[in-house]
Design a protein that fits this description.
With 180 residues, the protein is mostly helical. It is built from nine helices and no strands. α7 packs across α8.
Length: 180
């Protein structure tokens, strides 16, 4: 009988531990509890929860979260800019001087209403630094020189495919370096 009671206590303890892990997991998923806080008091439970749920992440401090949010916004803006660049026919004119002339021609078509995509892209490009500054806000990460340099990395419609790819990748890399 005593062994039976001991076995029941062990089972109750195991059930209680599982309930605690489940409750903790639900609190973390709901954002009411940070996995980093759990790790301080119960690292074994935190590790098990992370292993079971790799999408659980520790909350960032407010300043770091702001930088991460800004970086995600800037990255999204660059992706939209690149998509609009491609829709406007950017980097589709081959190489050499003719590519530059045809790209310039598309830009002019945009200004007179014959290529809406080119007009949208050129307006976005012209406002890139201002939009970047607005997205970055007062994070203290980018200087005026940074804005100017990053705006210079946006390719023209007459850029070659290699130039455009390199410039967009450089733009992403430099933004990541500033916010990383």
């Amino acid at each position: 009988v005593e062994a039976y009671h001991k076995q029941l206590k062990l089972q109750d303890s195991a059930v209680e531990k599982l309930q605690k892990q489940y409750s903790t997991q639900e609190l973390i998923k709901s954002g009411k509890l940070d996995i980093g806080e759990v790790a301080k008091s119960d690292p074994v439970t935190a590790l098990k929860l992370i292993e079971k749920n790799p999408d659980i992440k520790s909350k960032l401090p407010a300043a770091d979260q702001k930088k991460a949010d800004v970086f995600n916004s800037v990255e999204s803006f660059i992706n939209v800019l690149e998509k609009n660049y491609q829709e406007a026919g950017g980097a589709s004119f081959g190489k050499g001087p003719l590519a530059r002339i045809l790209g310039f021609k598309e830009g002019v078509k945009g200004k007179i209403g014959l290529n809406e995509s080119a007009d949208v892209f050129n307006r976005e490009k012209a406002g890139f630094a201002a939009t970047l500054k607005e997205l970055a806000g007062d994070t203290g990460v980018l200087t005026q020189k940074d804005y100017e340099r990053l705006a210079g990395l946006v390719p023209d419609l007459g850029s070659t495919p290699k130039e455009a790819k390199t410039l967009f990748n450089d733009l992403r890399s430099q933004v990541a370096a500033k916010f990383g």
